[in-house]
Design brief:
The complex is a heterotrimer.
Chain A (H helix, E strand, L loop, with lengths): L2 H6 L1 H19 L3 H18 L8 E3 L3 E3 L1 H26 L6 H19 L3 H19 L6 H32 L4 H10 L5 H17 L8 H8 L2 H26 L5 H23 L4 H22 L1 H28 L16 H4 L1 H15 L5 H15 L3 H26 L2 H6 L13 H19 L2 H11 L6 H4 L2
Antiparallel strand pairs in A: 1-2
Chain B lengths: L1 H23 L3 H21 L3 H26 L12 H24 L10 H8 L1 H9 L3 H22 L5
Chain C lengths: L5 H21 L3 H26 L3 H29 L15
Classes of the chains: A mainly alpha, B mainly alpha, C mainly alpha.
């Protein structure tokens, strides 16, 4: 690890340095705005420093590899946490607890996700995952006065700790069999070993439990609705995007370098998980009337769709998955951003009544929310539609008929519960008077930052929906840089 | 050389028995005590495996620090022992034991009957060298420097999280 | 050490892992559930150390060193959340928090 290597880890160093500087500043002068500005500078600095990294791919020690694939996900994750930080400024300025530590934890969680993206060894995989998880434990339970927030915190912690214990035991079994912790050497061992003993399969299966938990896929999704409902709204946006994005990027890299596609028992397992996620996500969302729980189940379904790109594998699957993840980031940040902006001091805006006749109170916000929900449902002219189309193309390209058909069926089912929210928003205020409902429930003022972030997200949503060519070519260039031998074999 | 086998059997039995007793004791403080015994037995096993650094760190970090923290919180919350430990819902208990037994038999079968593709001829010299503090220290600061720094930030995040959640709010 | 085949170490770690899983599912008290999770992590550690010493490479033992820092961090934040729950006059029993609600 020479000093030249440090140059390649610039974003990590900047974010780590920013969180330490913020801690020092909080020590002297505890002010919400100052801490917020420092966190924005740290994240923006890390994003800008991405442009100065040349000469990829670059291996740093045996544990980390910085290639253009990692650079793209670094940019995506930094921008997503930048959006979450700006959204949470308006949210927390209403609270009176100590809110400065929130930004430090947000930066360390982002740091964990960034380490996850570049890791190429079990040690850095485990460390990145644990930094992300430990910071999230505190973020989920950040408002201890709220009973549900603390309840969600303990639930998330117990299940996340158990799943990381499963991950560790899975890694121990794979290390026991293969003798290496490095993805590439593991791939070489698997290629050379004529008889691949079931011990490695057992190890992979145990690791799938931890990955399934982190991505909130079907059998391991029990925690999702309660944690999404209990956690503060900006933290929910963070959990739904950055922590899943980091884990997906890593798991795709691991599976392509180890070429796990050869174990068809694992592929069947993933197909079952994908289909189960889609069905459970959509059907249970139909029964909810709490907006955050609906969005939680819809995010389970969306990760099920994303798995189709993972099942397709190869270059096309990677591009489809990355584009879909970008669309998923935009819509999830948008929807939870709107929930954040409308939240009150003592509770979040998660019941449908908060959105009753929203169009007449907040026309811009209502149209933005409608655009986001349209994209989640996959209506044309939005990024969501292009993402699903790309997924279906990748699936068809590798003859995954069943998952693609189920993708289409589930998209149809999902339209119902997205429109349920939209209908409530556009109900005319006069009707409400008849129903004896207080028409103009007062929602808090829209913070400047929140407005900017939401408008930028909506513009990106429509831009990627109508002219996807630009972003797709950019993804193609960046993704082609993934440094792994295995990807060339799979078409 | 049978002395080593006796030591192994001794430590392994303690570890196994103490872990079972830990789970079945209704009183949480008793569970904590048996977990500490388990950690000491593991430290002994690590010594048998020539992992000197890890066995000492195991005693210091696990038995010394983490379990003390557990006992401290147990005393703080003076949580009563769960009287109806085993009576509770029967089906979750049976399901849990069956699931755990299945996991154990599965892995045991795999370990014994799967032919490991590499025969492990343990050469004592290398493994002794691998376990010493110098070797681990050198590796830690050369090859594994990035996770080492990351572990620093992990502990930073944990301390801030613990402080924020458990601090008495003086308002 | 060359007398004891490595399978015995793995059997012990698998047994402790299974006991840990049972403990997490059965016990109601949140603190005891954390102890069972520590037990599961330790079983993983045992397997890693056993293989690292049989193979003569220190990679496994360094990984165990990092797992210990992770376990300490998790215990600290977990117990802080439990204290926060206790202060909100909630119980420390996991079942009241109905972990598997749909």
């Amino acid at each position: 690890m020479t000093s030249a290597d440090l140059y390649y880890l610039m974003p990590l160093i900047i974010i780590a340095g920013a969180s330490v500087v913020m801690l020092l500043v909080i020590g002297f002068y505890r002010d919400h705005t100052v801490t917020f500005i420092l966190s924005i500078l740290g994240l923006a600095g890390a994003f800008i420093s991405l442009a100065y990294i040349r000469g990829l791919p670059r291996e740093i020690g045996a544990l980390v590899i910085v290639d253009s694939y990692a650079l793209f996900y670094w940019g995506l994750i930094t921008l997503a946490s930048l959006a979450v930080a700006i959204l949470s400024y308006g949210y927390f300025s209403k609270m009176e607890e100590e809110k400065e530590e929130y930004y430090v934890l947000l930066l360390t969680a982002t740091l964990g996700s960034l380490v996850l993206v570049v890791s190429r060894n079990f040690v850095s995989f485990f460390m990145g995952l644990e930094i992300l998880s430990v910071s999230l434990y505190a973020l989920v339970a950040y408002l201890p006065e709220r009973k549900r927030s603390v309840e969600a915190g303990i639930k998330y912690l117990v299940l996340a700790a158990a799943s990381s214990a499963f991950l560790l035991f899975g890694m121990a079994l794979v290390y026991a069999e293969s003798g290496t912790m490095d993805f590439l050497k593991l791939g070489a061992h698997l290629n050379s070993g004529a008889v691949n003993t079931p011990l490695i399969l057992a190890g992979f299966a145990l690791m799938v439990i931890a990955v399934g938990f982190k991505l909130a896929l079907a059998p391991f999704h029990m925690w999702t609705p309660d944690v999404y409902e209990g956690a503060p709204a900006p933290v929910t946006a963070f959990v739904a995007t950055v922590s899943k994005g980091g884990m997906f990027a890593l798991w795709f890299r691991f599976f392509t370098e180890v070429n796990g596609y050869r174990f068809n028992s694992l592929m069947i397992l993933f197909t079952v998980i994908a289909i189960a996620s889609m069905f459970i996500g959509n059907f249970l969302a139909l029964l909810q009337n709490n907006v955050k729980r609906i969005l939680a189940y819809s995010s389970i379904a969306h990760l099920g769709y994303l798995l189709i790109a993972f099942l397709a594998g190869g270059r096309m699957g990677l591009e489809a998955g990355t584009f879909y993840l970008v669309a998923y980031f935009i819509t999830t940040l948008g929807t939870f951003g709107i929930v954040t902006v409308l939240s009150f001091k003592e509770r979040d805006a998660d019941s449908l009544d908060d959105y009753r006749a929203l169009y007449w109170r907040r026309p811009l916000l209502a149209t933005a929310f409608t655009a986001m929900l349209m994209s989640l449902a996959g209506i044309p002219l939005t990024a969501g539609f292009v993402g699903k189309f790309y997924l279906a193309a990748a699936g068809v390209n590798t003859a995954l008929w069943l998952p693609v058909i189920i993708l289409v069926i589930n998209s149809a089912i999902s339209v119902y519960y997205y429109l349920k929210i939209v209908v409530v928003m556009y109900r005319s205020p006069e009707e409400e008077v008849v129903a004896g409902m207080p028409v103009m429930t007062v929602s808090p003022a829209l913070s400047v930052g929140g407005g900017i972030v939401l408008s930028v997200l909506t513009i990106m949503l429509v831009w990627f929906g109508t002219f996807p060519g630009g972003i797709i070519d950019f993804i193609k260039i960046m993704i082609s840089g993934i440094s792994s031998t295995a990807i060339t074999m799979v078409p | 050389m049978p002395f080593e086998i006796i030591l192994f059997v001794f430590f392994a039995l303690i570890a196994a028995v103490s872990s079972v007793v830990m789970v079945t004791r209704p009183n949480p403080v008793m569970s904590a005590i048996f977990l500490v015994i388990n950690f000491f037995a593991l430290a002994g096993l690590y010594l048998l495996l020539h992992a000197q650094f890890i066995s000492v760190v195991q005693v210091i970090v696990y038995a010394g620090a983490i379990m003390v923290l557990f006992l401290f919180v147990l005393m703080l919350l003076n949580s009563k022992s769960e009287q109806k430990l085993l009576s509770g819902q029967k089906k979750i208990k049976v399901f849990a034991i069956v699931l755990a037994a299945f996991v154990f038999i599965q892995i045991a079968y795999l370990i014994f009957f799967s032919s490991p593709s590499r025969s492990l001829s343990p050469d004592v010299a290398a493994s002794i060298k691998a376990g010493t503090v110098e070797e681990i220290g050198r590796q830690l600061y050369t090859g594994y420097i990035l996770p080492f720094e990351a572990a620093g930030f992990l502990l930073l995040a944990a301390t801030i999280g613990a402080l924020v959640l458990a601090k008495k709010k003086f308002n | 050490m060359n007398l004891i085949p490595i399978e015995y170490y793995l059997i012990l770690s698998a047994f402790m892992f299974a006991v840990g899983v049972t403990g997490v599912l059965i016990r109601k008290n949140a603190i005891v559930v954390f102890m069972c999770i520590e037990l599961m992590l330790n079983s993983g550690n045992l397997a890693l150390v056993a293989f690292s010493s049989y193979m003569g490479s220190s990679a496994g033992q360094i990984f165990v060193f990092f797992v210990m820092t992770v376990a300490a961090a998790e215990a600290a934040v977990g117990l802080a959340i439990i204290i926060a729950i206790f202060r909100n006059k909630l119980t420390v029993n996991i079942d009241e928090i109905n972990i598997f609600k749909w």
